[in-house]
Specification:
Layout: H1 2-27, E1 31-32, H2 36-42, E2 59-63, H3 71-83, E3 87-91, H4 94-103, E4 108-110, H5 118-126, E5 131-134, H6 142-157, E6 162-164, H7 167-174, E7 186-188, H8 192-198, H9 207-218, E8 222-226, E9 231-234, E10 239-243, H10 254-271, H11 276-298, H12 304-319
Parallel strand pairs: 2-3, 2-5, 3-4, 5-6, 6-7, 7-8
Antiparallel strand pairs: 1-10, 8-9, 9-10
The structure holds 2-acetamido-2-deoxy-beta-D-glucopyranose (NAG) (2 copies).
The site of one 2-acetamido-2-deoxy-beta-D-glucopyranose (NAG) has 6 residues, from loops.
EC number: 4.2.1.93
Signal peptide: 1-23
Protein name: ATP-dependent (S)-NAD(P)H-hydrate dehydratase
Length: 327
């Protein structure tokens, strides 16, 4: 009996050890060609402190949504919140606003995008934003392009950092001048198709060379985050590749999740006077790990909602400050 008990006692720690190795195996599969970003990303999150007031950890504005797409801005803004922004606003059209509000009471949903006085109504809110994310589910109507460009002009006048994704990139491809010499950091997050439309697909020139030509046109405050099996961060002075993690499962909404997470990370990076590439890496790592973790549970049935459920744990493992958590 005593021997049995001993064996049992031995077995438990061994099992725990195995489980731990297994989970850290999953977590360690993301690799990045610039390890300084990993160190910075670990120290990116501001300490949780009772001395701070609401809003200091980030106020993110998501500009998106349309009759067709209400999920995209929701996934972005809830991810921005889950990463740790204090407040997340969604600026959308009237008919999408009630739908998005009904998904979540956490978000402030402002139905001004198709208002007659859109800019007058939106402008005062822009003052409060640390980062504006433009594009998720925005649609490609000509009238939307008009308001999109006016919002960028307002953001420009107030030096608001931008993340531009999805249909926002469609409009930028039409008129890249709108972000030329932007006075604050801008991250563009094209996937393969969006890259081709925005920057080109010349066969005899490398992706990086084409990207640099584009950056020379729009100015050095723009960072490209090119989404693919290997993500690539391209700036005038840097090229970083991120691979691993993730899975073969490509459910809709992952780009929206990534953009929302990146916006909060960007607010934090700029607060520390760090380069936007840190936010790009952190968002890529987070999304890749959430994908891998939820794929392990749900396989082919995995949805982006499942990935967002993994976010708190992936965040804690990679981005939570270990000491001075509450002071
Ligand atoms: C780029 O952004 C910085 C702030 O991050 C600003 O000081 C600088 O003037 C901007 N560059 C241009 C060309 O506007
Ligand atoms: C690439 O090919 C195009 C024609 O397809 C040509 O005009 C251009 O000069 C080539 N560029 C280089 C760098 O070879």
């Amino acid at each position: 009996m005593a021997i049995l008990l001993n064996r049992y006692q031995l077995a438990v720690p061994i099992l725990l050890l195995t489980a731990k190795c297994f989970s850290s195996n999953i977590m360690s599969t993301v690799t990045v060609s610039d390890t300084s970003l990993v160190e910075k990303a670990k120290n990116l999150a501001p300490p949780l402190s009772s001395g701070k007031h609401k809003g200091q950890a980030g106020r993110i504005g998501v500009f998106g949504g349309s009759i067709e797409f209400t999920g995209a801005p929701y996934f972005s803004s809830i991810s921005a919140l889950r990463v740790g922004a204090d407040l997340s606003y969604v600026f959308t059209i009237k008919d999408a606003a009630f739908v998005i509000k009904s998904y979540s009471p956490e978000l402030m949903v402002l139905p001004f995008l198709d208002d007659q006085e859109a800019i007058e109504k939106i402008s005062p809110w822009i003052d409060r934003l640390h980062v504006a994310l433009l594009g998720p589910g925005l649609g490609r109507l000509k009238s939307t392009q008009g308001i999109f460009e006016k919002i960028i002009d307002v953001c420009r006048s107030k030096n608001i950092p931008l993340v531009i994704d999805a249909d926002g990139l469609f409009f930028i491809a039409d008129n890249p001048n709108i972000i030329k010499d932007y006075p604050a950091p801008v991250i563009l997050t094209p996937n393969k198709m969006e890259f081709q439309r925005l920057i080109g697909d010349k066969q005899n020139v490398t992706k990086e060379e084409q990207a640099i030509q584009f950056l020379e046109k729009v100015g050095s405050n723009v960072t490209l985050f090119c989404k693919d099996a290997t993500d690539e961060i391209i700036t005038m002075t840097k090229n970083v590749k991120i691979s691993g993690g993730g899975s073969g499962r490509r459910c809709g909404g992952q780009g929206d999740m990534l953009g929302g997470a990146m916006s909060t990370f960007l607010a934090w990076a700029l607060d520390k006077k760090w380069e936007p590439a840190v936010a790009c890496y952190a968002a890529s790592k987070l999304t890749r790990d959430c994908n891998a973790k939820s794929f392990a549970k749900y396989g082919r049935s995995m949805l982006v909602t499942d990935m967002i459920h993994e976010l708190p744990e992936v965040f804690r493992e990679n981005f939570e400050l270990k000491d001075e958590q509450f002071n």
